[in-house]
Amino acid sequence: MSINTNKKNYQPLPESYKKSFPFSLGTTSFIYPDDYIPNAEMLGTYVDELELLVFESKWPDSIPSIQTVERLKITGREYDLKYNIHLPTDVCLTDMDIKAREHAAEILSLVIERTAPLCPSTYTLHLPFYPGSDNENEIRKRLDNAYKGIEKLLLTGIKSSLISVETLDYPFEWIKPVVYDLNLSICMDIGHLFLYNFDPVSFYDKYCNKISIIHLHGVRDKCDHISLEKLSQERMQIVMKILGSFKKTVSLEVFSYKNLATSLALLDRKINQNP
Q1: What span, in angstroms and rounded, lies between the C-alpha atoms of 130 and 101?
Q2: What are the record keywords, sorted (predicted)?
């Protein structure tokens, strides 16, 4: 299927990687400096899945409109393109303020309901703990807030395992109870694990049966979400070890054409060409 690039002079990827890997290959809706639909149309021929980034919720057009979702649904059928959703990060279910938590539950529920027609493979959720929250009492309070907030999200009718809790800057054990008790899944962000000095292999070995999506990106000098080319050889070997047995969704979570193109080429060489 050819892509009409007459309206936008965007550079297409040099080759298609659709159905090229043992896992479902995805990337983000921020590759081209445009909205969801142009990114879906530009990338649909080249990847299996698109991670729709709904990072913000405060602007009138932050959440995809009903019309946008319908167009994305049509585009998905035309290009055999699936979707996963990254839920807003500017609202927080673990906030200590009850009004903030209630607002977060409302916004997150709206995004889940709005994008449900796309049948996403997962909804990735941040459950932050903030600096100074590493004492037992603080962890317990935020964990309790997470239970209550996610229970509200489940009122939308979403299957609990479609909510994937992302690895952030704190030990995953802090949030593990809510993941297991409510039968959620895990978004393993390998870049975050590298960035915050956690062991990705140990994490994968421990939680592989719960992981529904892996976020993959380069990390160097405390900078993440860059090309995989920026990973050290040792870290790339770790990535390959993990991907060797993973069969679900891997999203190259980068935000530019260059970072995506170089990451795809490296991943293809490592997995399919065995250099």
Answers
A1: 15
A2: Isomerase
| pLDDT per position as a tens digit, 124-174 | 999 998 766 668 888 999 999 999 999 999 999 999 999 999 999 999 999
Burial annotation 186-215 (CB, 10 A radius, 16+ → b, else e): bbbbbbbbbbeebebeebbeebeebbbbbb
Q: Give per-residue pLDDT as tens, 44-87.
A: 999 999 999 999 998 878 899 999 999 999 999 999 999 999 99
Question: Residue type for 199, please?
Answer: D
- Give the CB-side neighbour count of residue 18, counting CA atoms within 13 A: 17
CA–CA gap between residue 243 and residue 17 (Å, rounded): 16
Q: What is the C-alpha separation between 206 and 197, in angstroms, rounded?
A: 17
> Could you tell me the domains of the chain?
24-273 (3.20.20.150)
Q: Is the pLDDT of residue 275 over 60?
A: no
Cβ contact 177:155 at 8 Å: no
Query: What is the C-alpha end-to-end distance of the chain, expressed in Å?
Result: 30
Per the DSSP assignment, residues forming a β-bridge with 171 are none
Instruction: Give residues with Cβ within 8 angstroms of 39, minimum separation 6.
Output: 29, 30, 31, 32, 50
Rounded distance, CA 123 to CA 52, Å?
Answer: 10
**Does the predicted TM-score (pTM) go above 0.85?**
yes
pLDDT mean over 193-220: 98
| pLDDT at position 7 | 46
